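Dissemination and training. As part of the outreach component of the grant, students in the summer workshop were shown how a complex can be specified as a set of sequence lines and then modelled as a single object. The example used during the hands-on session is reproduced here so that future cohorts can follow it. Participants entered these lines:
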Amino acid sequence: GENVEQHPSTLSVQEGDSAVIKCTYSDSASNYFPWYKQELGKRPQLIIDIRSNVGEKKDQRIAVTLNKTAKHFSLHITETQPEDSAVYFCAASIPRWKTQGGSEKLVFGKGTKLTVNP
Amino acid sequence: GAGVSQSPRYKVTKRGQDVALRCDPISGHVSLYWYRQALGQGPEFLTYFNYEAQQDKSGLPNDRFSAERPEGSISTLTIQRTEQRDSAMYRCASSPGISGVLTFGAGSRLTVL
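and obtained this result:
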């Protein structure tokens, strides 16, 4: 089955610096890669996602890049702010045609705890 | 509703008791997923439904775990004869369709003493 590895497990940066979190996946059929942000005591919330027909997607200070050949994707946060501090989870989908029941199923990484120091 | 609602938010029970966790998805969302999240870990898939049909239960750890969504809306995850290793955050998520974005609920934190 799909396996998602996420690195690093913790990341500490100074305010204003960039942060990069990387994930690798095992199933070459995966085609949807979302990133979730989970603040302390709160629910995971989608911050950006990418499908495999594009290589990069940006939304203000965050961007995701995808390399399907190498089976890895990355989250980039520029000009980090203290409110970016949270745990970030990547996920890769098992595509519909490979799942029981025909819906996409997400497999999550173990998370990266990002701390932005003022 | 406006978001995915879960109840109870916190449940403390004694080993051997049964528990039922409830999820009310976003109105109109077709797909409903149950995940379990251990402390410091990512969400781990348990099961999902399209409408009232349970399509995949491959993630349920054993036969003490079951789930239903009888009318295609609210879902209940039931754990029978709870064990300490069942302690975790149980999260529900819903999606508008079979390939949609997941919206998570706040979760039900289960503690088995």
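Chain A has a mean pLDDT of 93. Students were then asked to discuss how this feature might be tested experimentally.
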